[in-house]
DNA sequence: TCGAATATATAAC
DNA sequence: GTTATATATTCGA
């Protein structure tokens, strides 16, 4: 295998589960870590999206880890508290995307941050943060739905790998279930995350 | 509203 | 390798 020192022969597990009309899916690799998550109205799109992120052909089955991850994902979707047991697989993620994801994980539940705020924090630019956020491999586990335009409108969100109006509704619902107050299409400014300390 | 500026990723050359 | 094009944005006029 040419230049493939990083590529292990890994067994990939893909599991999906339906909850309240939405399909949730996880892709699990070596060391039982989460390579990617996704959700969609259609199981077919969900599987296609997850397979696109898979370095090799995954096997569709359930394991302890995939069940734990799926249940936690549904809890996150419903805005419930979780035990946070799922370990993420960072090894295929670029340095810049790692930085963006780490910063998103700092945004507390019930708060939002703008692309520009995050950009300042990591010494980058808002467009670049936008692409980083869009490429988040772990929606829900890494709360990219808490990143919004500086105008405090809802902004964009993709579900199952595609931007859509439905995605925007989902983003809005997720935020509301986390306790963010939204009037019309404007997020209350009190929901803005004010980072404490460094 | 509209256009430029901005940092990154990707595809084309 | 280098250049062109596209972004889940932002800011100023």
List the helices and strands and how they pair.
Layout lengths: L12 E7 L2 E7 L5 E7 L2 H10 L6 E2 L3 H14 L17 H12 L6 E2 H7 L4 H9 L12 E2 L9 E2 L2 E2 L1 H13 L4 E2 L2 E2 L11
Parallel strand pairs: 1-4, 5-6
Antiparallel strand pairs: 1-2, 2-3, 7-8, 9-10
The structure holds a DNA duplex (13 and 13 nucleotides).
Describe the protein.
- The protein has 198 residues and is α/β, with parallel strands linked by helices.
- It folds into 2 domains: 76 residues, Double Stranded RNA Binding Domain (2-Layer Sandwich); 97 residues, Arc Repressor Mutant, subunit A, CATH 1.10.10.10.
- Helix content is 33%, strand content 18%.
- It contains 6 helices and 10 strands; from the N terminus they run E-E-E-H-E-H-H-E-H-H-E-E-E-H-E-E.
- The strands form 4 sheets. Strands 3-2-1-4 form a 4-stranded mixed sheet, with helices on both faces. Strands 5-6 form a two-stranded parallel ribbon. The protein has a two-stranded antiparallel ribbon with strand order 7-8.
- Helix 4 packs across helix 5.
- The protein is globular, with a radius of gyration of 17 Å.
- The chain starts with 12 loop residues before the first strand and ends in an 11-residue tail after the last strand.
- The N terminus is likely disordered.
- The structure holds a DNA duplex (13 and 13 nucleotides).
């Amino acid at each position: 295998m040419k230049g493939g020192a990083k590529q292990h022969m890994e067994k990939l597990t893909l599991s999906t589960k339906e909850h309240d009309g939405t399909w949730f899916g996880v892709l699990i690799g070596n060391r039982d870590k989460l390579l990617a998550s996704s959700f969609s109205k259609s199981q077919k799109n969900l599987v296609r999206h997850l397979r696109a992120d898979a370095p090799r052909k995954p096997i569709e089955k359930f394991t302890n880890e995939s069940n734990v991850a799926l249940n936690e994902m549904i809890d996150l979707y419903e805005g419930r508290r979780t035990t946070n047991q799922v370990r993420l697989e960072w090894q295929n993620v670029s340095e810049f995307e790692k930085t963006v994801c780490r910063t998103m994980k700092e945004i507390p539940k019930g708060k939002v941050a703008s692309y520009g705020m995050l950009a300042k924090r990591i010494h980058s630019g808002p467009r670049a943060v936008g692409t980083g956020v869009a490429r988040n491999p772990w929606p829900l586990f890494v709360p990219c739905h808490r990143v919004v335009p500086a105008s405090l409108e809802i902004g964009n969100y993709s579900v199952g790998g595609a931007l859509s109006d439905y995605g925007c509704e989902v983003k809005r619902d997720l935020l509301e279930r986390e306790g963010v107050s939204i009037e019309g299409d404007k997020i209350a400014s009190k929901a803005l995350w004010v980072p404490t300390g460094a």
